[in-house]
Amino acid sequence: MRMTVHPVNGAVMEKDIFDVTTRKGIFLLRKKTLLPDRERVFACMRPVPGSSLTGDLEEEYQAVLPGFLRCADPGAAVCFTKTGPADADGCLPEGSSTALAIAGVGGRLAEFCGRFFREEAYVRGLLADTMANVLLFTLTSELDAWVSEQAAAAGTGAARILEIPGALPVTWQKTVWEKTKAEELLGIHWRESGVLEPEKSLTRVYLLEEGSCGKLPVHDCSVCGRKECMYREKSQM
Fold first, then answer.
1. Is 220 contained in some domain?
2. Would residue 142 count as lying in a domain?
3. CB neighbours of 32 closer than 8 A, spacing ≥ 6?
4. Residue 155: exposure state from Cβ atoms within 10 A (0-12, 13-18, ≥19)
């Protein structure tokens, strides 16, 4: 098994993160075996003392897990491109190299979670919803690692993740959705209200630049060997 180091948290992991195919110039990433981090799920679900949710969650978790895994379909679509004049922004001048990505855990999973609430099985509903959130978080972390690896192989580095909204206006969400052909490839819909459906979906814009160390921002610059990296903290020069 080939191993690599995660560019954000330094964890050692399998190098072949996803099953990857290319369609219409877009990378389609799938990982059917991706599991929600059980410890993270339980940490999110631990109730305050005296809550009605007190008790052993393990039995509920084991009851929910088989159906959850049958319905989960984690995947992402990634497009490597340059910013055109129509999309240029303060953080992304025209010609900026970017990776545009959209990720989700599947529409059947949203239906699976909602069914528990309709049946008034609220603990299982909350548990399934938390599991879906954690699965999306795990998928996104592995997506970050994959984009960083691909950018490095192309001779650039993944310098920053530009948040939507925040660093980029919310209109960029539709831009990413369109350019990644997310409706066709992943079944993710964009509504005029600006909402992605299924709701357990998100967009990501990575700024790619030569001279970047290739690690995404949440890393310790003081232990990074790329002394010339333009994103190095000034206090760690």
1. no
2. yes
3. 19, 73, 74
4. exposed
Instruction: Find residue 104's DSSP bridge partners.
Output: 75, 201
CATH number of the structural domain spanning residue 187: 3.40.109.40
> Is 28 inside a domain boundary?
yes
- Is 217 inside a domain boundary? no
Could you tell me which of 57, 59, 89, 50 has the C-alpha nearest to residue 176?
89
Name the token pair of 178: 């369109």
Q: What total number of domains does the chain contain?
A: 1
Q: Provide the domain limits for residue 104.
A: 18-208
The Cβ of residue 92 has, within 10 Å, a number of other Cβ atoms equal to 19
For the entire predicted model, the pTM comes to 0.79
Please provide the size of the chain in residues.
237
Q: Phi and psi for 105 in degrees, rounded to 5?
A: -110, 5
- Cβ neighbors of 111 (< 8 A, separation 6 or more) are 71
What is the C-alpha separation between 109 and 18, in angstroms, rounded? 20
| DSSP per-residue codes, 62-81 | HHHHHHHHHH---EEEEEEE
Asked whether the beta carbons of 94 and 88 are under 8 A apart, the reply is yes
CA dihedral of residues 193, 207, 11, 77 (deg, nearest 10): 50
User: pLDDT per residue over 75-129, tens digit each?
Assistant: 999 999 988 888 877 778 888 889 999 999 998 998 999 999 999 988 899 999 9
